[in-house]
């Protein structure tokens, strides 16, 4: 095992992301050694650390002289390529093993993808439910419906969510504190803070985090899955993505725990199905899309977006309250929930027309759960529509009014989400109309865009010109 500086610097990683990965590795190393396994481990601060996984592999081959290499399927195409190149140069056979932390194999996904139907999460999810028997009664979905997503869109009243059980927090132990010191020293210029670091770093903690979520927050998870609220970073979300991605928690345990809560009557079906859909559906689907379409996928840019990422993405210094709240929370914790990622930071970049590779690099750097197989399809496909519809059947575009409906951000903002042209016009709303005007001709063929595009019909030429002018000023002021 090797701690390679390159893994923290090839994107400008959040300090919490680096800390979590290294701490989880060191805990795993210690457990293996306690169980009697010999581990060759190279720490980041070793004076002869070569700085990259491939060079450390080469060094190990020179010293250990193995007959063959065995590797679990990595989380990034880049890493697999680099390690394969080293194995070939050393003339060693390399066996890439299936990663048992997923329900579906890559071959299974490719077979499904090759069946000629449009690649859609909903049909893949149905297949996975049937194959695993999760939330099934015989061959029928539990409750009669495959998805309860219409019951996942609840919002809070004006008084807010009230008291939400706080997620289980894990104070950094000695190993984590040592890593934190190293990260503060070695990556002092990197974004983010470690003050609030409380992520599970070993399987025991991950299990406790799952039990805590299942018991205290899962029952309301489904209803408020899409809601946002100031100073409530986690709401009813599980915070389990990093534990699952780092293999501290097997997704089977997460899904089983949720299903058990439904069967014993402690959580309703809309919540349990909502959670199962995220883990058994979306999580498996994005991984399949990643490996099926890489490496070409990374270069896709269907909307020809080429604006630079606004600098405030790294600081949160903006007057747009929704972005300020989401980005500052992200810098503090390395976390934002799905709707904050998709409908605040992601939506703004999409409407502004930011180069999807810049957006991709930001998402890969800034979240504690960021691994490319999960991040890239979510960013490039679901959020930026850069894959032209492989992942999502239409671009997820909305005006500031959507954010106003799903959160209290707009109430504390100097902008007005219902305005597109006035002095206090919400930039999301101005850019929303600009997006529809710019991309309308290309998107008109898409039946799912019809309703949104028809709203442009009453717009006069003058109004379209005014929106273009307002957008142009906005772009200048943002950079
Ligand atoms: P919950 O809301 O509690 O959901 C439960 C679990 O479902 C998550 O832990 C996660 O494992 C899984 N899940 C939910 N939605 C997705 C999804 N769309 N894709 C994959 N898994 C999902 N997730 C990552 O794990 N790593 C990433 O790098 C990542 N990047 C993203 C980038 C963008 C632009 C967007 C829109 C989403 C991204 N996601 C990513 C998906 C999702 O936002 C996070 O998994 C989720 O917010 C993690 O918080 P949670 O554990 O509290 O999730
Ligand atoms: Fe965000 Fe616009 Fe609402 Fe302000 S008014 S919080 S910028 S959506």
Describe this structure in words.
The strands form 2 sheets. Strands 1-2 form a two-stranded parallel ribbon. Strands 3-4 form a two-stranded antiparallel ribbon. By secondary structure, the protein is mainly alpha-helical. Among the domains are: 6-97, HUPs (Rossmann fold), CATH 3.40.50; 311-478, DNA Cyclobutane Dipyrimidine Photolyase, subunit A, domain 3 (Orthogonal Bundle), CATH 1.10.579.10. It contains 20 helices and 4 strands. The model has no long low-confidence stretch (mean pLDDT 96). The protein has helices at residues 6-9, 15-34, 53-64, 77-89, 106-113, 121-132, 174-186, 203-216, 218-221, 241-245, 251-263, 269-293, 321-333, 338-352, 356-366, 372-383, 400-406, 427-443, 450-454, 461-478, and strands at residues 69-72, 94-97, 136-137, 140-141. The radius of gyration is 23 Å and the shape is globular. Bound molecules: flavin-adenine dinucleotide and iron/sulfur cluster. Flavin-adenine dinucleotide binds at residues 237-241, 244-245, 275, 278-279, 282-283, 286, 337-338, 341-342, 346, 363, 367, 369-371, 374-375, 378-379, 382-383.
């Amino acid at each position: 095992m090797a701690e390679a500086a390159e893994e923290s610097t090839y994107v400008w990683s959040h300090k919490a992301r680096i800390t979590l990965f290294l701490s989880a590795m060191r805990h795993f190393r210690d457990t293996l050694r306690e169980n009697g396994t010999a581990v060759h481990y190279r720490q980041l601060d070793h004076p002869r650390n070569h700085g990259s996984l491939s060079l450390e592999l080469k060094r190990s081959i020179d010293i250990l002289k193995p007959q063959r290499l065995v590797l679990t399927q990595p989380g990034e195409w880049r890493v697999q390529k680099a390690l394969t190149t080293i194995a070939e140069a050393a003339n060693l056979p390399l066996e890439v093993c299936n990663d048992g932390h997923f329900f579906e194999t890559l071959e299974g996904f490719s077979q499904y993808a090759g069946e000629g139907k449009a690649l859609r999460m909903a049909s893949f999810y149905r297949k996975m439910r049937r194959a695993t028997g999760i939330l099934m009664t015989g061959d029928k979905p539990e409750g009669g419906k495959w998805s309860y997503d219409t019951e996942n869109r609840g919002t809070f009243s004006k008084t807010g969510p009230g008291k939400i059980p706080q997620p289980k927090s894990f104070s950094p132990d000695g190993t984590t504190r040592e890593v934190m010191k190293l990260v503060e020293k070695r990556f002092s210029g990197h974004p983010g803070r470690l003050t609030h670091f409380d992520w599970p770093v070993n399987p025991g903690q991950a299990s406790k985090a799952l039990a805590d979520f299942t018991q205290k927050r899962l029952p309301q998870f489904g209803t408020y899955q899409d809601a946002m609220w100031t100073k409530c970073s986690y709401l009813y979300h599980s915070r389990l993505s990093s534990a699952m991605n780092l293999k501290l928690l097997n997704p089977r345990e997460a899904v089983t725990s949720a299903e058990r809560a439904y069967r014993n009557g402690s959580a309703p079906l809309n919540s349990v199905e909502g959670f199962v859909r995220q883990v058994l559906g979306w999580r498996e689907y994005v991984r399949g899309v990643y490996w099926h379409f890489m490496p070409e996928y990374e270069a896709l840019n269907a909307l020809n977006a080429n604006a630079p990422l606004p600098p405030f993405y790294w600081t949160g210094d903006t007057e747009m309250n929704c972005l300020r709240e989401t980005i500052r929370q992200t810098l503090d914790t390395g976390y934002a929930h799905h709707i904050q990622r998709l409908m605040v930071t992601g939506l703004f970049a999409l409407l502004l027309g930011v180069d999807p590779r810049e957006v991709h690099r930001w998402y890969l750097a800034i979240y504690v759960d960021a691994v490319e197989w999960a991040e890239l399809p979510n960013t490039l496909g679901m959020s930026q529509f850069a894959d032209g519809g492989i992942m999502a059947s239409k671009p997820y575009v909305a005006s500031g009014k959507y954010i106003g409906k799903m959160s209290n951000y707009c109430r504390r903002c100097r902008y007005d989400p219902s305005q597109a042209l006035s002095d206090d016009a919400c930039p999301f709303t101005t850019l929303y109309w600009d997006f529809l005007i710019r991309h309308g001709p290309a998107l008109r063929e898409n039946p799912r865009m019809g309703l949104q595009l028809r709203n442009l019909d009453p717009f006069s030429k003058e109004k379209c010109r005014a929106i273009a002018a307002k957008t142009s000023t906005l772009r200048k002021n943002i950079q």
